[in-house]
């Protein structure tokens, strides 16, 4: 500093200081954090890497961004304070650093070097609490212990309080605005596709992380090029100590008189070896089966044949003729008694190259049901009414076993084998009293019918698959060969008796007594083989070539017997007109080409066409007739996914597919078990072709916890399946036959919004939806067009404070409108409302209370004048017990006000009906709940 005058230097310094002081109020006080992310080994810049800023006191996410194409990033408008910087990228070890941001500062972290996990002996360990929420690529990861819950809380309780995840009263999960279709445990399916076993059977304290992500299709994972087909998935990553011992849960509940509800779950893990078992027995409606399992439970005699997007035929099982109470699972109708149990085993060997898993499940459900159905049938200027009372007892049981074996032959090829088998029985006894009326007052009775049915049916099913996949050295070049088979067998023996009284001018005009035995045997066998080859055109696009063959064979043998007056032999005389022996075979060859393009994080789309030839053969052995015919089908398809930014995406899908008639629709035989509703097949029925369009939008912002999601669906069908109905106005009897019609279409859509408000736990939401259906049928030779509309929606409010209290309010208002061209003056219009108010709180002395209240308001109509409004109020009080609160004693009440009503209103074409039925009403339970565990020590089992 020698030789430099002091005064000019001091003057300059003072002036600069004054300028700085004056500028501070003008400039924004927020800080800026920037840097560049690079790879340590390849010395290249890493784009699309997540940089998150965490608050060290409670690990709350303050801000985040992604690096650009040159690896650079900049976090703007940051508040002052001390923070943790977390940099994360798939396949790389996480990077952590501390920063102290001062007001208005710009801190340059320089080059942040990322190291591949494969280059480390272990992941980098940082001696700081990890963030509560982390973003790794497309995965949102929640650290479970960062969200405080009371002891014994389930995984479902944990999911309810995670930002961006919602769980409804039925256990269905929505994550980042999309419906969750799979719940995995440590990356594997747990008891097949029933997610509630994991979410309601596992406790929250066993989970280390909850991961929400879009699971790519197997084909996209295999080829390495995204095909836009994704499944919203939640993975529950268990804590390491839970993989070295056992844990579980036991619930024992009873009112010591009429009601009981007991369940238990046991899990024993040792490294990658998992064993689990569960059991449920209850007469309070808890059967342990979700809707997916219900689809496969019981015995069905009808199968629908449809095509996949590649033109291959497949059969889809449906419900058989088990009477009006033929549902295979409990959906609230009747008084149930259920027993359910299952076991799960899985293991991996040889560095995860060999994977074996299996599940066994047993289900039994008994149900006593009573119901009343009142219906309106519009036939031009005439309106007929039917009043039906029914009683039914049914018992169903099923054993189901499935297994998966997968082996990685080398780094480029694998073999996967699956097998599944089930065996079930259904026994149903029902009685029905039906009255057909020509006016609401009931002064003009057309017919009175009393029916009695007894059906005993058995079902067997076995299916298997084999898949071999081979990658080649060029990325995207693959070859896969698959084979699938399915075999289903059904048989039933039923007694159908009815006393049929037909009236004229108020007095009985004729009587018909029906007493028949019906023996039914049906089977279905299907085989499919497919070859797929993909050839990359560039690093972002490929062509797929495929060829497949399908062979489907169905047979149906029905024998209808009546009592023989000559020999006096019970059910010894065959009724030829109601008996048949039918065969239906479809052989299909299909080939196609598809183009796919994928630009990660931006856009991917695909389009293509498959052409198939389907050769049909139907043979009526009793009628001694054979018919052969064929169709050439074109199957266009297109998919587009556009990622607007890192948080929003738009998807569009279109596909066209054929649907073949089922064997029950085409076999020329009448079903007269219900004299007021006689059905017969139509052997001239053609296949239908359906066009489906879907566009959806999804947006989720992590910091503000704002979600917007919506979709619009539209479909139209050529040669759609409908009915030709002949209705006898003097008796009320309907004879229906399936026919093909054109012009049918359906549309539906929804938009939902949810936003966190303030820094507390308040969340507000709003949802809207609509449905529209246009279909045609024939009534007494006249073409009839039917239009039905439903519009609805409502707000939602929730507020939650960790370990203290929470409240949820869901509302839904719906208007329903139905019109028929046969009588434009008759318009059915009514409102329904469904509102749910749930509350829970933690009180002193280790007490928790919970209240769940459901309000159902149903508007009366000129036809349905009965008051069916109800309030179903459930509540419970829990007292935690023992050290560490491992147990609790619960006092609960179901339907406190005793107003629960079984109710369903249905609009179908020109036919409108309202059904009420018995269901579980007010009951009290005392339940002991115990959560047990022994962790940290290997088990010798």
From TrEMBL:
InterPro entries, alphabetized: Carb-bd-like_fold, OMP_b-brl_3
Domain spans labelled Outer membrane protein beta-barrel: 470-785
Gene3D superfamilies xref list: Carboxypeptidase-like, regulatory domain
Pfam families according to UniProt: CarboxypepD_reg, OMP_b-brl_3
Protein name: Outer membrane protein beta-barrel domain-containing protein
Species of origin: Niastella koreensis
């Amino acid at each position: 500093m020698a030789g430099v005058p002091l005064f000019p230097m001091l003057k300059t310094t003072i002036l600069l200081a004054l300028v700085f002081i004056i500028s501070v109020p003008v400039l924004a006080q927020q800080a800026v954090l920037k840097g560049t992310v690079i790879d340590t080994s390849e010395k290249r810049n890493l784009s699309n890497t997540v940089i998150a800023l965490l608050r060290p006191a409670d690990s709350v996410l303050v801000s985040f961004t992604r690096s650009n194409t040159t690896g650079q990033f900049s976090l703007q408008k940051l508040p002052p304070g001390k923070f943790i910087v977390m940099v994360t990228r798939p396949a790389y070890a996480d990077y952590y650093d501390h920063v102290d941001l001062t007001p208005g500062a710009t801190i340059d972290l320089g080059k942040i070097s990322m190291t591949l996990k494969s280059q480390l002996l272990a992941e980098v360990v940082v001696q700081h609490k990890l963030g509560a929420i982390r973003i790794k690529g497309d995965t949102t990861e929640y650290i479970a212990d960062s969200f405080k819950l009371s002891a014994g809380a389930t995984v479902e309780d944990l999911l309810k309080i995670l930002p961006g995840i919602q769980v409804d009263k039925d256990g269905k999960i929505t994550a980042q605005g999309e419906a969750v279709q799979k719940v995995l445990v440590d990356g594997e399916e747990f008891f097949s596709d029933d997610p509630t076993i994991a979410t309601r059977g596992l406790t929250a304290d066993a989970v280390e992380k909850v991961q929400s992500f879009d699971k790519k299709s197997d084909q996209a994972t295999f080829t390495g090029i995204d095909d836009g087909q994704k499944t919203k998935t939640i993975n529950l990553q268990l804590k390491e100590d839970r993989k070295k011992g056992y844990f579980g849960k036991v619930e024992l509940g009873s009112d010591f008189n009429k009601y009981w509800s007991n369940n238990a779950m046991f899990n024993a893990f040792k490294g990658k070896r998992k064993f689990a078992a569960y059991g449920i027995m209850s007469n309070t409606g808890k059967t342990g089966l979700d809707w997916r399992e219900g689809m496969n439970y019981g015995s069905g005699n009808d199968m629908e044949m449809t095509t996949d997007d590649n033109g291959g035929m497949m059969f889809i099982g449906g419900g058989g003729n088990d009477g009006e109470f033929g549902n295979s699972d409990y959906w609230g109708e009747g008084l149930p008694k259920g027993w359910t149990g299952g076991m799960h085993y899985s293991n991996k060997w040889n560095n995860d190259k060999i994977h074996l898993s299996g599940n066994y499940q047993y289900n039994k459900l008994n149900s006593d049901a009573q119901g009343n159905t009142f219906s309106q049938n519009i036939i031009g200027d005439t309106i007929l009414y039917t009043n039906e009372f029914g009683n039914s007892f049914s018992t169903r049981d099923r054993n189901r076993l499935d297994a998966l074996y997968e082996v990685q032959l080398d780094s480029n090829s694998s073999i996967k084998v699956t097998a599944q088998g089930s065996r079930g029985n259904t026994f149903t006894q029902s009685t029905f009293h039906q009255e057909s009326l020509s006016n609401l007052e009931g002064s003009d009775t057309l017919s009175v019918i009393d029916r009695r049915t007894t059906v005993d049916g058995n079902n067997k099913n076995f299916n298997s698959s084999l898949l071999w996949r081979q990658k080649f050295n060029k990325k995207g070049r693959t070859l896969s060969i698959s084979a699938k088979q399915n075999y289903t067998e059904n048989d039933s023996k039923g007694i159908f008796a009815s006393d049929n009284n037909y009236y004229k001018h108020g007095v009985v005009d004729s009587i018909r007594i029906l007493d028949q035995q019906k023996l039914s045997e049906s089977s279905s066998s299907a085989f499919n083989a497919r070859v797929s080859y993909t050839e990359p055109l560039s690093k972002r696009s490929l062509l797929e070539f495929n060829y497949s063959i399908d062979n489907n064979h169905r047979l149906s043998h029905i024998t209808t017997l009546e009592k023989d007056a000559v020999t006096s032999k019970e059910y010894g005389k065959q009724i030829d007109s109601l008996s048949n022996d039918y065969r239906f075979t479809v052989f299909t060859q299909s080939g196609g080409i598809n183009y796919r393009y994928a630009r990660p994080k931006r856009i991917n789309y695909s389009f293509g066409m498959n052409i198939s030839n389907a050769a049909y053969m139907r043979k009526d052995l009793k009628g001694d007739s054979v018919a052969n015919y064929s169709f050439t089908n074109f199957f266009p398809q297109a998919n587009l996914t556009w990622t607007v930014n890192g948080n929003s995406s738009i998807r569009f899908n279109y596909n066209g597919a054929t649907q073949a008639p089922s064997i029950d629709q085409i076999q020329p035989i009448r079903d007269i078990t219900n004299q007021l509703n006689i059905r017969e097949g139509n052997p001239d029925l053609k296949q239908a072709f359906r066009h489906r369009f879907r566009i959806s939008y999804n947006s989720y912002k992590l910091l503000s916890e704002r979600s917007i999601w919506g979709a619009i669906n539209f479909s139209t069908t050529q040669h759609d399946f409908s009915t030709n109905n002949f209705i006898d106005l003097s008796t009320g009897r309907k004879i229906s036959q399936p026919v093909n019609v054109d012009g049918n279409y359906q549309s539906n859509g929804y938009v939902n919004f949810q936003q966190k408000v303030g820094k507390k736990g308040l969340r507000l939401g709003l949802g809207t939806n609509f449905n529209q259906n246009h279909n045609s049928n024939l009534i007494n030779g006249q073409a009839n067009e039917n239009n039905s509309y439903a519009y609805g929606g409502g707000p939602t409010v929730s507020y939650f404070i960790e370990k203290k209290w929470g409240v949820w309010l869901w509302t839904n208002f719906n208007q329903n409108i139905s019109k028929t061209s046969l009588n434009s003056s008759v318009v059915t219009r009514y409102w329904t409302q469904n509102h749910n108010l749930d509350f829970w709180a933690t009180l002193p002395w280790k007490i928790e209370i919970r209240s769940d209240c459901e309000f159902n308001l149903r508007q009366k109509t000129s036809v349905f004048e009965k008051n069916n409004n109800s309030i179903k109020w459930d509540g419970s009080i829990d007292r935690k017990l023992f050290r560490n609160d491992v147990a609790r004693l619960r006092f609960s009440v179901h339907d406190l006000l005793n107003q629960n009503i079984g109710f369903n209103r249905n609009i179908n074409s020109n036919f409108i009906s309202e059904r009420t039925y018995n269901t579980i009403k007010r009951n009290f339970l005392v339940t002991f709940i115990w959560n047990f565990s022994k962790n940290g020590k290997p088990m010798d089992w």
